[in-house]
Each structure stands twice: as C-alpha cells, then as structure tokens.
Amino acid sequence: MAFPGKIERDRYFSASVLFRGRFAELREGKKMAVDKDKLQRDLDALGEAAMRRGEELAVKATQLAEQGLEWATPRAQKLYEDGVALAAPKIEEAAIKVRPYLDNVHDKVVEDYLPRIEEAAREAQRALAEEGSLTERVSKATEVATETLTTAVPKKRRFRAGRVALWTLGGAAVAGAGYLAWRRSQPIDDPWAEEYWADLDTDADFEEFEVEEAEVPVEEMEALEAEEDEEK
Question: What are the pLDDT digits (tens) for 134-172?
C-alpha cells in the first residue's frame, strides 16, 4: 500500500524551498538588490508558520503515543530523509543567489533571528534523543524550542550567505521534531492512518513571495563584492 500522507509530506517540505522565491536576476548593465525589509517580514512569517506546524504535529505525536502506538518500520524515517535530501540542493541554490545581498538584510534577521532558529533546532534534537517516553520527549522538544525562539541571542558575528541554508534547515528541524516523532509512532498498517493524516490540515499557508527590486549604486555593490573577495 502507498504510505499515507505523501501529499502532506510534499506540501510541508515545499516550505523549505521558499528561498528560491522569485529573486530578481541581475539585469543587463544594472546592479540590483533585494528589499531587505520585505525579506525580513517574509522570513519572520515563514518561521512563525513552521512553528505552528511543529506545534500541531507535536500534539498529534503525543496523542498517538498515549494510545500506545509504537514504531513498526523504518519506511517513514526514509521518507522524511528523502524529503530533506530533495530540498537541500534547492536551498543551496537559493543561498548562492542571495550572496550579494545578505549583508543588506536587517540586523534582526542576520544577528538575532537566524541564531535563534539554529539553536532551537539543536535543542529540540537533543530533547528527542534523551531517555523517556515519546510523550515526554516530544513535550520537552516543543518546550525547549519555543523557549529558545523567544530568547534574544547576544550579538556575536554576522551571518553570511551560507547561513541562509542553515536557517531553512534549522526551521525545518524545529517544525519537524514532532512530525518525525509522530511518524515513528505510526504503524504503516494502522487502519486509522488515513484519518490521522487527514487531521493534519493547518491554517499555516506557505506561499511564495516576490522580492522587490531596487536599484543600487554601482560603487556600493562593488564594495560588497570586494568584501566577499577578502573573506575568501
């Protein structure tokens, strides 16, 4: 039988590719840059949507754990990993596209929000790896991830283009913590599986966003490019 929820899985992982968006290509003879304020708003919205998704899936995982459902096959784990593998190259491509612009993104995004997402992902993964019942581990993972996301991070260093991929993967890890735990509690042959998947609809819509274009003086773009060369 086909594994239930493939459409739901594909929809979820499509959020990881949002950075592809519709970034403006450099026009002939013109230097262009993104609208940093709009990019910040879109990043914040995506992070909030991911957390809503993670909280919903964590609740479902807890409900199934309380019913005594146990992990019966590695198949769901493989589907999860396959989704990440498919998204990763596209995320890397997006990171390359925003490389000339990342330093123009608001400090809140590059020095505060990105580190929060990354740390929240690590904390959630640690909690899921600890001893205890599935219910306890999922509850702890959700708790520590939420706490980390609401705690300001001291400024340490600027995050450059490579960190865009980490933000996306980190956000997916946090939102997927309850998702993966739930899958591990779900027997493939469970006759109620379709119903469980059907209950996972959410109001968190992951819509593509457009990055508005704005002309940038040539000297400013050249300065950014020179800085990139120095760091290499």
Answer: 667 767 776 777 677 667 666 554 444 334 433 443 444
Q: How many structural domains compose the chain?
A: 1
Residue 67 token pair? 């019913």
Residue whose pair of structure tokens reads 């469980």 in the numeric block: 196
Whether residue 231 lies inside any domain: the answer is no
Q: Which helix (H) or strand (E) holds 136?
A: helix 134-149
Residues of the chain with pLDDT under 50: 1-34, 61-62, 64-66, 68-85, 87-88, 90-92, 94-95, 98-99, 101-107, 157-218
DSSP string, 46-107: HHHHHHHHHHHHHHHHHHHHHTT-----THHHHHHHHHHHHHHHHHHHHHHHTTTTGGGS-H
Question: Is the separation of the CB atoms in 19 and 95 below 8 Å?
Answer: yes
CA distance 57 to 178: 5
User: Are 138 and 62 contacting, i.e. CB atoms less than 8 angstroms apart?
Assistant: yes
In 147-218, the DSSP E strands lie at 213-215
Strands 213-215 and 32-34, by their bridges, are: antiparallel
Residue 1 domain-assigned (yes or no) = no
- The pLDDT, as a whole number, for residue 12 is 41
Range of the domain at 217: 6-223
- Would 57 be classed as within a structural domain? yes
